[in-house]
Amino acid sequence: MNENLKPYSRYVQKYKLVLDKPLVKLDRIKINTSADLSVFFQKLNAVEGDDIVEHFYVAFFNRSKSLTGYTYLSRGGITGVVADIRVILAMAIQSGAVYIAVCHNHPSGSLQASKADEELTRRLKEAAATHDIQLMDHIIIISDESYFSFADEGIL
Question: Fewer CB atoms < 10 Å away: N or C end of the chain?
Fold first, then answer.
């Protein structure tokens, strides 16, 4: 892991939840647009992921939409990645998140959301709402730094 992204962390099961600690000033990262989210996730993917297989990330935000934590949730295959909603929500609750945003990459270079992507987004949004947590966006990124935003496209 890059030294710039190596803050103090806690573990939820086998997943690392990176929280705001002195080594990284997460509170200075404010997300106002899907483009801001894309930039953050692109940087995280450059450190944690690759463009060979899919990777899934989750970011956690406080009430003022300042980043308070993030996790590299899972590594998938060439055409898919598993994102367990229960694990995402357990981490969101543990981190005290009011908002969450999720992201995965498409190694194929396609910005087209699949039916599985849409279904996961719908189910995550509904499940999060039962805990008073709002899904801000689901971002799909590709290697040329382009992105697809479910919120911008009105799918969220």
Answer: N
Confidence of residue 2 (pLDDT cuts 50, 70, 90): very low
pTM value is 0.82
Question: SS3 letters for 32-56?
Answer: CCHHHHHHHHHHHHHHHCCCCCCEE
Of 42-46, 104-108, 152-156, least confident by mean pLDDT is 42-46
Residue type, 119: E
Average pLDDT of the segment spanning 128-152: 95
Question: CA 114, CA 23: separation in Å to the nearest integer?
Answer: 37
Give the pLDDT confidence score for residue 145 in this predicted structure.
Answer: 86
Residue 53's CB is within 10 A of a number of other CB atoms, namely 15
Helix, strand, or coil here: 26? helix
CA distance linking residue 49 with residue 20, whole number of Å: 21
Q: How far apart, in whole angstroms, are the C-alpha atoms of residue 124 and residue 84?
A: 9
140: helix, strand or coil: strand
Instruction: Quickly tell me which residue has 């989210």 as its tokens.
Output: 37
Residue 76 burial (CB count, 10 A): 16
